[in-house]
Amino acid sequence: MKKGFKIAICGACGTGKTTLSNVLAEKLNMPVLTNKGRDIAKLIGISNFNEPIEPTKHVLCHYATLNERISGELDCKDGFIADRSVLDMLTFWELDTKKYYPQLNENYSGMIKSHLTNNPYDLLLYLPIEFDGKDDGHRSIGEHRNLEDKILSRLLNESIGKVSSKNILTIRGSVLERLEAVFQYIRSIESI
């Protein structure tokens, strides 16, 4: 695989992104960019996303997490595996935060569009909901999870999704089946 190859994995909570990220990183000898949202949330006083959260803390958490992710992606010049993409962050913004400060919607989505236009992923893997998740105070299950998947699916089909990567792959199945699908796809785009 070429140096600097950037893979991002997106999907609703509990779809296996972290598991796949870690296995891919080990197999490809690449660093994993983990989601720092939980750590950032704790720093600003959010301990449980299933309880009411002050709107300003929502906004602060989203901006801090987005800035941390963009910086991390830009710092990894030799390539990376991202456990969540910036499209996931836009999904959470739309789902949880944009209603509080609609005047910030254009700014937040503009940061993501600008980043993706200038730094698209070489491969964006979308993991749809295939199995039940578990609620741990950060992962929402049920209707919230389904809405997350619906918004992300819409974004992937809109212009922002098309800017994010020329290679968007939906993968399903066990970890081994997903790995095989990813490696098969990488081989196919490398041979072009």
Describe the protein:
This protein has 192 residues and is an alpha/beta fold. The chain has a single domain, classed as 3-Layer(aba) Sandwich (Rossmann fold). 54% of the residues lie in helices and 10% in strands. It is built from eight helices and five strands, in the order E-H-E-H-H-E-H-H-E-H-H-E-H. Strands 2-3-1-4-5 form a five-stranded parallel β-sheet, sandwiched between helices.
Provide key terms for this protein.
192 residues, alpha/beta, globular
What's a concise summary of this model?
By secondary structure, this protein is α/β, with parallel strands linked by helices. It is built from 8 helices and 5 strands, in the order βαβααβααβααβα.
Q: In what range is the share of β-strand residues?
A: 5-15%
* CATH fold category name: Rossmann fold
Tell me the number of helical segments per DSSP (H or I, 4 or more residues long): 8
Mean pLDDT: 89
* Structural class based on helices, strands and sheet pairing: alpha/beta
Q: Give me the count of strands.
A: 5
Q: What is the global morphology?
A: globular
Measured between the Cα atoms of the first and last residue, the distance is 13 Å
Number of domain modules: 1
Proportion of residues in helical segments: 40-55%
Order of helices and strands: EHEHHEHHEHHEH
Per CATH, the superfamily is P-loop containing nucleotide triphosphate hydrolases
Using the coordinates above, name the CATH class: Alpha Beta
Uncertain spans: none
Sheet of most strands = 5 strands, parallel
CATH architecture descriptor text: 3-Layer(aba) Sandwich
User: Largest beta sheet: what is the strand line-up?
Assistant: 2-3-1-4-5
